[in-house]
């Protein structure tokens, strides 16, 4: 028997045979010896009770809908279909070419038949959308760099030019018909409005695409980032006055042009101000913009609480002056480098503005001229807010004074008394604004009121 252990395999075989023999012997003698005790039976699990149906109150639904203003829920991206190696795009980019069964719906009936004023003639939205539809085979998609509640922003290349691609995901079939119709309308409105705007301080439209499961808006790519990111990098350090006025002028000029086209942006905030490579500020994101004469007929609830005008909170009729109010808060952020109402939640800020007429505190270091302009812009009464033609004129004159004197302190500080309930003080401040303003050009809407 010793020779079996000289070879390891034989030894293992012997041991294995021995164990199996021992097991079989034990099984055979189980009847004659003591029976092996079996484990006690496990108790049966009780069937799960059905989850009771919850009736959601209207108050809860309204509060839940309101949170969409400042929350960005992450949606799961659907897996992409496999692509052959021959069609591989450049590294870091993906082609938007879809399988043969996915075709762009080019029928006129697929677009909402809405009309937009464009000078003397009226242009139908389907015609504009068809004109701006892109060739998807020439569009490459890169990495995502921003996201919203229902949209995602990606780097892209279209016809060898860098672009920004915004995808607006359509809900799945039967998921939410009301939301699907709302996003469809928003996409159509954004493209038709951007197609009409051509200005140095407004983002430029490149094209659009209506895919079966997603909307796509393509614009120029602005490499300078957002005003929010720029202010965040300052870490509450104050900007030089030259930079404050320069950025404010770019924003005001863009909004002046937008208003002259009869458009109201309705969501002016630092996140919607982007810079190009030369640090020129541009107004972006026209997803909730509207024509001024139709804004009150839409029945929607746009904007962002911290920068929203009081009349929008209270669902009162409003017009282009809501953008002036928001601009006043953006100008305050340029001066202070801080977030308005940063110690409050957005809902708390909205409540304080509506019920207590609260505004952020303007620092004492702010020049009197800028202080007055900020206070006039965020005035409670829309008719007391200046037009953007006046704002541009005032900022241009402040820029001239600053370049000439190196300071704005020579402008009398007594003009800050304009907000006190004194008609004489208001008249003095109004005369000061008029001296800095130029003659107003003809405006298609009602004549701009005097600044009080």
TrEMBL record:
InterPro entries: Kinase-like_dom_sf, Prot_kinase_dom, Ser-Thr/Tyr_kinase_cat_dom, Ser/Thr_kinase_AS, Ser/Thr_Kinases-Pseudokinases. Gene3D superfamilies: Phosphorylase Kinase, domain 1, Transferase(Phosphotransferase) domain 1. PROSITE patterns: PROTEIN_KINASE_DOM, PROTEIN_KINASE_ST. Transmembrane segments: none annotated. Pfam families: PK_Tyr_Ser-Thr. SUPFAM superfamilies: Protein kinase-like (PK-like). Residues 21-32 have a biased composition (Polar residues). Residues 139-398 form the Protein kinase domain. Residues 55-65 have a biased composition (Basic and acidic residues). Residues 21-99 are annotated as: Disordered. One of its GO terms (molecular function) is ATP binding. This is Protein kinase domain-containing protein. It comes from Zea mays. The lineage of its organism: Eukaryota, Viridiplantae, Streptophyta, Embryophyta, Tracheophyta. The gene is LOC100193102.
